[in-house]
Amino acid sequence: MMENHKYAVVDIETTGHSSSSGDRIIQLAIVFINNYKVVHTFSTFINPEKSIPLFIQDLTKIKNEDVVNAPLFEEVGSEILDMLQDHIFVAHNIHFDLTFLQSELKRVGLPKLICKTMDTVEFTKLMFPNLYSYKLQDIASELQIDLQMAHRADDDALATAYLLLKCIEQLSHLPLRTIELLHKRSFHLKSNLSLLFFEVLSTKRLKYEPNEYPMYRKIPLKQMEEEKDIGPINRSYPLEKLSKLKLFQNGFPLFEERPAQFELMDTIHFTLQEKKEIVCEAETGIGKTLGYLLPAAIYAMETQKPVIISTYTTHLIDQLVQEEIPKLDEVLGVKTRVAKLKGMHHYIDLYRFWQHLQLEDESYDETFTIMQILVWLTLTDEGDLTELNVSGGGQLFVEKIRRAVPFKSEESEVVDFYERAIQKSGNCNIIVTNHAMILADQDREFRLLAKGCATIIDEAHQFIHASMSRKERIFSYTNWKYILGQFGTLDTEQLLYKLSIIHIPLPLRIRLEKEFVGIVNIFDETVSYIINSVQHAKNRSKNTKRTILLDDLHLNESLFRKVALSIQTFILSAKSIIHSYSMKEEAVAPIILNEWEYWIRELEIKVAEWDEIFLQEESIEAKWLEIDTRSIPGSLTIIKRPLNYQNDIKHALNPLRSAGAVIWTSGTLSVPSNRHFITSQLGLHEKIEICSFKTSADYYNGAELLIIEDMPEIQHVSQSHYIESVAEAIVQTVLVTEGRCFVLFTSQDMLRKTVDLIQDTKLLDDYMLFAQGMSSGSRMRLLKSFQRFSKSVLFGTNSFWEGVDVPGDALSVIIMVRLPFSSPDDPIFKKRAELLTMNGQNPFTAYSLPEAVLRFRQGFGRLIRSSSDKGVFIVLDRRIETKSYGRDFLQAIPNIPVKKVSLENMVLELENWYTK
């Protein structure tokens, strides 16, 4: 029986983040747990003796009137301290709650709370390592924990208490071997979770019955159940409209017919049957994904071969499998057999992981990530490392255990996830993969996608970016220094020093050290040479962040050749010494030698990239350098991106064309002035039909476009004056609409300066401002944060314009600061413009304008995501009305009301619009 610890689960709401800066507690709640049951709760408002900021009121729904008659902290502090004594203090992000509470106790003259602690953020990350987010509200939703009102101390404390019990339950269900491995490392955690690991381990050992685990790893893995072949499905494609309606209404009783969706389905059905190639541009709102999934699944079941469906990112793969395929199953009334197939590097290499388990952990991040993976291996079906949610530091460890080379263990008990994914893809109806996988398949001796009978490429316009990224090579100074730093010298505790442990003769160690020091010296000399060339470049800029085409620096290749030669010499020497060493005498030798093999392989990858970037010339490529003068040489990055991607796409698609139909689809695949703008970049013949499927005329009834006609023209005023005008327009819009606003920029520099100015004015202090490149977190995390607050504004650049879906009231306004033309200084644009000019074409009409119009369409597409949405698209760039090309932008979006208004009248227009 587990020891009966008593837990006090605490949550506080405050006026801000810093007690020392005068912030105060406004609500405190405690949930007491005894015998693993909630036995008592305590909650009180607390008078902070100051006004509660409006954004805190918005977040917590606690108003000034709620706390005006509440006790002061000094009146309840002693009682709270007494209640918490002799309990383990539990909180979700304990660093905040406990630290703030301790500061308040000190402020009113009470003693410090002395207690054991447990952080449910740390515990949840360990027990549920594959959750997308570890915010309490998101966890509660995912784990079905009741949370009536997030950001209220009483509800949050109760949800945290039930989360603690969920984590304990999850821990107790883990295999004994996993718990043993976790307990061994639990003493390095930040809170006292080792107490729980010991309790559960002791109980588990009393009940333990030996089980056989895969021996060579002794890591418990989830038991895999092979899917049974359910044979052909007696389901034919519903050609008649009534048949389609009946099918959809069986799956969704409240289904509303969308004619364009049925037209898309028919087009794809006939294309599959005729084994043709087609382009389908399907506007937002027609139900594109289900529109292609249904005919594809039926065709696959008829042919008994899988249809390949490719999308751009692994996130979209997971979204398709987890959200869209279940809808398909509801409509068809059968379970579609689906296989996800990603590149080898997405999967864990169990042998590498087992090797690292034998070594001493390098840091807290590494310890924590190893513990997360041990739990995850008992949960995962696929071994896909993207399922894991690890810290930035943990990501470094994940990179060490990725599958890097084809490997098949001779021990049949070992589950190899990558091989299993390949096997599964041969016995399914639909293979879901990504563009990178299709492009990489052309290089494989045995193609993994050879069994497909047809191919559907969703987010087709992104296939171009996937091809460019596949051939892209990046030199990062910090990444190189990290890898070189692993080797150290003979008197450090890095790789060279470890050779003495396995008795490599001293002369050989000295030789290796000398060769390695030579690498470091010539590498540093070369980096200094590059930076010196940048500092003497003619196009010096006042900006701290600089982008320079490498051709403009006229670098001499000789130093770069010396770097490559010195590394290759060192690699040959190291391999020779390692391979000639007998491993039979030292137990530790295999571990150390495997470490050496891993980092030598990393060095081989790096020197190959170095060779491609600095010593190989492509026929058509953009090669440029990026640096921040405030951080030299740490910020130095050099990028090479070949631009002859049409041949790459052609070679990847030709085998798929031979196998059956190829269908390209996306929401934006054309622009009015250049219907073949995207398809020509994809290398598609002009004879391939482009079909457009549009939403019903009333879908955009809730949309309106405003052009602000008294904005200054950027060429006629100073940058500071222009940014002031942009900031004023944003502030006025946000104050009228009360947030829920995207602001889209074409320049990160202008975004930063505008946000800084708005923050300096304090006019939007009551709003949550999230800015790409300024606020911490990924794009998806910023979007989640934006959605969480009603009074919020999100500032983003081009990368926010695609794939962002914010349905409903979460987004009501998009402000486009500038028409989304590429910067003339963008290295890829400069190279394209140069090539077009050489071919006798006008770079503006042939590339710059259609690219900007396409982005404009994509920006607008973020606003209305359902027929019930309502929103305003505001353009601050007067060129849309003053330049002849302005009509190209307006013709590219649906027929909605367009009004030209002054900034002053815009405010009135918005007020009228949102009160309709």
Description:
The protein is an alpha/beta fold. It is globular and about 80 Å long. The chain has 34 helices and 23 strands. Helices cover about 45% and strands about 15% of the residues. Among the domains are: about 5-205, 2-Layer Sandwich (Nucleotidyltransferase, domain 5), CATH 3.30.420.10; about 475-640, Fumarase C, Chain B, domain 1, CATH 1.10.275; about 705-915, Rossmann fold, CATH 3.40.50. The protein starts with 6 loop residues before the first strand and ends with a helix. Strands 8-9-7-10-15-6-16 form a seven-stranded parallel beta sheet. Strands 19-20-18-21-22-17-23 form a seven-stranded parallel beta sheet, sandwiched between helices. A five-stranded mixed beta sheet has the order 3-2-1-4-5, with helices on both faces. 3'-5' exonuclease. Its cofactor is [4Fe-4S] cluster. Keywords: ATP-binding, Exonuclease, Helicase, Hydrolase, Nuclease, Nucleotide-binding. It is an enzyme of class 3 (hydrolase). Belongs to the helicase family. DinG subfamily. Type 2 sub-subfamily.
Q: Any descriptors?
A:
single chain; Nucleotidyltransferase, domain 5; Fumarase C, Chain B, domain 1; Rossmann fold; 7-stranded parallel sheet; 34 helices; nucleotide-binding; exonuclease; ATP binding; nuclease; EC 3.1.-.-
Total strand segments? 23
Oligomer: single chain
The level of helicity is 40-55%
Secondary-structure-derived class:
alpha/beta
| CATH homologous superfamily assignment of the domain at 703-914 | P-loop containing nucleotide triphosphate hydrolases
Distance separating the two termini = 64 Å
Q: Which term fits the overall shape? A: globular
Name the strands of the widest sheet in spatial order: 8-9-7-10-15-6-16
What percentage of the residues does DSSP assign to strands (E)?
5-15%
Poorly predicted runs: 212-217, 407-412
The tally of helices reads 34
Alpha-carbon Rg, integer: 30 Å
Mean pLDDT: 87
CATH topology grouping of the domain at 703-914: Rossmann fold
- Using the coordinates above, name the CATH class of the domain at 703-914: Alpha Beta
Q: What is the CATH-assigned architecture of the domain at 703-914?
A: 3-Layer(aba) Sandwich
Function: 3'-5' exonuclease.
Domain Helicase C-terminal: 729-880
Enzyme class: hydrolase
Domain Helicase ATP-binding: 247-524, 269-508
